[in-house]
Specification:
Its EC number is 3.4.21.-. One of its GO terms (cellular component) is peroxisome. This is Peroxisomal leader peptide-processing protease. By secondary structure, this protein is mainly beta. Helices cover about 15% and strands about 40% of the residues. The protein has two domains: about 280 residues, Thrombin, subunit H, CATH 2.40.10; about 220 residues, Beta Barrel (Thrombin, subunit H). Strand 7 and strand 8 form a beta hairpin.
Amino acid sequence: MSVEQSCCIVSVSESSSRQEQQNPLSCSGVILNDKSGIVLCSGTVFSPFLIDKECINQNVSILYASSFKNSMRVSVGRADVIANTTVKNEHPRLHQTAELLMMVNCVEFQKAFQKIFIEAEKWNFYSGGDEDADILIDSVFLSWFAVLKMSGLPTSTLDDTIPWIKSSSLRKGHSVLACGSPFGSFCPDLFMSTLSKGIVSNLAGEENALILTDARCLPGTEGGGLFVSDGDTPHLVGLITSPLCWKSNEWIGLALVCSFHLILKRILQAVTSHQSLRDISTHSSTHIHQVSSSSSLKLCNGNFLTVVLVDSGQLWGSGILLNPRLVLTCRHVVDGKAFLLVRVNVNERLLTLKGRVLFSTKASSPYDIAVVELQEPFADVVPQLATRFQPGEDVVVLGYGALGKTCGPSMTSGILSRVITAKSRPVMLQTTCAVQCGASGGAVIRANTGELLGIVSSNTRDFAAKVTYPHLNFSIPVSVLEPLLDGFAETGNVAVFQALDSAEDEVRKVWRLQIPPSKL
């Protein structure tokens, strides 16, 4: 079964309401077992039909059909049926009636979610399966998933069961493929089985129960699958729970995913007689290609690039370890402090070191840079600095954005979208990687070699529209900093960095958007 063939659309409506039938709630789903018609999808679309909504807060881990209104009607639209017809989506032949077998709560995901997403940080999660896609959902339902059985199945020539793999095999930076149907039941002939490529940005919880990916998902894809390639065969590794995340009204640009094998574990604990459900557990893969993880990304010269968390008190951000005692970060991260804390991710734990700010640029400087010295050496690292910049090449941003303080550094993928020059020298880099608050001072890395291209300075915020664009961001090329770093290494005199404060007018013009009264 291909990735696209495994995708489906689940619609839920109330038979007593004509309006509900015309505009059903909908989400994406994954066909786990084609011949028996077993489907797994998000539980959020079923929440309005719960008879006792308070039961969800009573430490229950499973709900059966009797917990939902008798008037609830469920149908499933299949990719192979919709692809072979031009009839509008409301035509009954495009949908197969389905029965809700149960809803299960992935407790491991729930625990990881509650630990990471602190209410005080104003996280919001959006979902939606119709034309009005911006629907704020109750986060309590994010860990719930519905198990369905389709009826009236056509003759199938597909494999019985979808192959899958444990999320515990994942590492940050692993390539993934997301498949879902944006806007759910709205125009399925146009949007069904839409694919999006990305990487694993971060992991959290028991056996990596919670997965963050930068694959670009849209409302309606919740319940869709996240896949990794094991050889030539894509393997299901998770289900999308929330395609869009906001923090303090800023778009994060990451999708939230729950581990499939932990959902399956909960299902199997609840059933003993449904053989097709139990058969799914035998179609797993135990091996997956390992990639670089944690805060270190291997470089082509055999050394490692390490990104640290720089904490100045009220503000925090990222920094790049240039040698055992020197950290490069942004001026606005150190926040005018002379001393601060530097935290390094070691075996998924943060080791705290003390740092002293040797130099930071003036507020009037176009370059937002600070140099920090560690009181104690950490590791013998010498990152390889890039000497060329090629627009369109694959890059990765490594930094402590979004969930940095709780999950360690995140990785987001994209391309080097622009190299802006002044007097034929690169002075600004733009990438399409998702960059959030906390990533400032992080590293822009060439994907295929690990070379350091630049230091993240900012993303884009439209103050007039009150919108943040994480996929349009600005970085300082390392070619600007390399001669100054060499001079400091030779003389030990921090005055060499003062050249950043006396940048030419052409450079100031390039970086003008960071200076008020610019609206960006």
